[in-house]
Amino acid sequence: MRSPVAFTENHPKPPQQGSASFLAPKYVAALLVLILSVTFYEFRSSVFIGDGLRHLPALRTITEGPPIAFHPKSWLEVYRYNYDRVVVHHHFLFGLTIRAAFALQQALGIGGDAIVAMQAVNAFSAAVAAGLFFLLVVRLGVPIGISLAVVTGVCLSPAYLVAATNVTEVALALPFFLGTFLVLADREFLGYSAGLAGILVGLATITYLLAGSLVPCIAIAAIVSRSPSRSTIERLFLFLSAFTLVVLGIWVVVLYLSGVHSSADLVTAILKFPEQGTYGRFKLGSLIGTPIGLTQAFFQILPDDFRGLRYLYHQTPVLVLFAGMLSLITCAFLARAIYLLSKGRMLRNLVLLSSLLTFLLVEAVCLWWDPYYLKLQVFALILFWLTVAVGFTNSQAGKADRWFLLLFVIAVAAGGLKVLNTNIEPSQTNRNAQQLHAIVGEGVLITGWSSDVAHLWLYSNGDNIIPLPDFALARNLQPSRVEADLKAIIDKASANGTKVYFYALFEANDEELTNAYDIRFKLSGFASYLRSLQQDARPVGRFVQPGGHWSVLYLYNGKVSQSRLGQAENSQVN
C-alpha cells in the first residue's frame, strides 16, 4: 500500500500570499475575468463559425422590415424540431443557454440578433475559464508572474480565441471543465469533492460532449495516484454517480419537456447520432495531421482555404515542411515538460495525471474525427498549457527552461494579436452572404456546407436554404429517397415559378464530388446526378473566397417534368 505521505510530497503547494493582499490569486483572477470579458467581446470575430450560425433559425424568426425585427421562438424549439439539424448531441445545453441569453438581451433592451447573445456568452465563459486556469496553475505551485504569462498565452492562442470571440459552442463548457480540475487540486478527491467534481464534469459534458473524456481519465488517475482501497472505490462511485445523474438527468428532463415521452424514443434520441458513419475514421494521414492540427491551435500556420496536407504540399511544399518542423518543436516542448514532471515525481499528482491522460484521449478523438478542428483542439490546448506551466516551473526545471517557456508564450501571443486584428476587419464572407441574399431572395438555394451560406442565416429564416449534407442526413442517407425528394423540391419550385439556385457545388471536380457524396455520405450515383443538374443551369454570379478562388452561383434552367407539371396544374384547378 502506498503511503499517503508520498502522495502529499508529490502534490505541489501554491506560493503563499496574504488573503487580504491585492495580489492574492482570487483578486487577480477576478480582475482577469473582467478585463478578458471586455477584451474578447470588443474584439469579437466578424466571420462566424457555421456550427453556431445554424442555431439561429431555431432561436428566432426574422421579420424583414423596415425595420427588421427578431422574434424569439419557443424555449425548446431547438430540441423539438431541430434536434438532428443542429447536432444537439455534441453540445446539448448550448441551445437552451443561448435562448435564455437572447431573452435577457431583449429584456435589457439590447437590439440585434441572437448572435449578440452568443458572442457575449462565449466571451464571458472564456474569461471565466481563464480566471479558473490562473487559479489552477497557482494552486499547482506556479509563481503568480509566470501564471499570468501562461494565461496570456492561453487566451491569445488561436484555438482559444475561436472559442472566446466567435459563435462556437465549446466556450460554454470550459468553466466547468477547468472547475473540475480546480476542485481536484484543492480537495485531492477527498470527501464531498468527488461528488462536486462529478457534478462539474457532468455539466461540462452535457454542454460539450468531448469534455466527457475527462471522466475515464480521472477514474484511472485516482486509482493510479493512490492505493486502490475501499475509500478510493467509494469516492470513485460517488464521482461517477454524480456525473451520470447530472448528464442523464438534464438530458431526459429536457427531452421529456420537448415532447419525447416514450422510453424507446428517449433512448434513441440519446444514443443515435445523425452523422454516424459519415465522419470519423482512422486515416494514415491523420497520424501526421494530428500534431500539425495541435500546432495550429497555437500558431496559424495553415491557410484559410486549407483542404488537406496532400493538396497543400502540391501547392506550397515549403509551407508543409515549415508546419512539420514547428509541430516537432511543439511536441518536443511538451515532451520536455513531461520529462521534468516525471523527474520531479509529480506525474502521480491526480490533477497532472488526469490532465495528461485527457490530453492523449482528446488527441485520439481528433485523430479519428478531424485533426484540424479547432473546437476539439481547444481542450488539448488548455491541457498542454497546464502541463508545460507546471513542468517548466517545478524544482527540476532550470532557468533556461523558464526562459524557453516565456519565449513560447511570446511567440503564441504575437500570433494571437494578429488574430484579434483580423477579427475586427470587414468580413468578405458576410459581404458574400448579403449579395447572395439580395440575388436569391425567396428562391430555393441548394448548396453544400459553405461559410457564405451559413452567414445567410443572419438575414433570413433559412426555410429556402437546402444544405445537401443536412438534407441527406435527415433522410437517413437513403440514396433513392434523397434524390427523389430533391427532385420533388426542384420540380415544385419550377412549377410555382420559384427560382432554384445552386451555390458552391459544381466547382469541385468529379473525384471530389464522388468522395463527398458517393463515398462519405454513401449516396451512390449522386455525384452524377449533380452533374446532370449542372447541365441544366447557368452561372449568374461569382463570389471570391479565402485563398483567392471563387464560388459560383448557378440558376436552374431545367424544365419541370410533365408529370410534376400536370400535378401542379391539377392542384391549382382544384
Look at the structure and give the mean pLDDT: 87
Give the strand content: 5-15%
Shape: globular
Count the beta strands. Answer: 7
Structural class: mainly alpha
Q: What distance separates the N and C termini?
A: 85 Å
Gyration radius, in Å: 26 Å
As residue ranges, the low-confidence spans are 1-11, 560-574
If strands are numbered along the chain, what order do they take across the biggest sheet?
A: 4-3-5-7-6
The helix tally amounts to: 27
Sheet having the most strands: 5 strands, mixed
Helix content: 55-70%
Report on the architecture of this protein.
- This protein is mainly alpha-helical.
- 62% of the residues lie in helices and 6% in strands.
- The strands form two sheets. Strands 4-3-5-7-6 form a five-stranded mixed β-sheet.
- Strand 6 and strand 7 form a beta hairpin.
- Helix 2 (25-42) runs antiparallel to helix 7 and helix 7 (114-139) packs parallel to helix 10.
- The longest helix is centred in the middle third of the chain and has 28 residues, at 230-257.
- The radius of gyration is 26 Å and the shape is globular.
- The chain starts with a helix and ends with a helix.
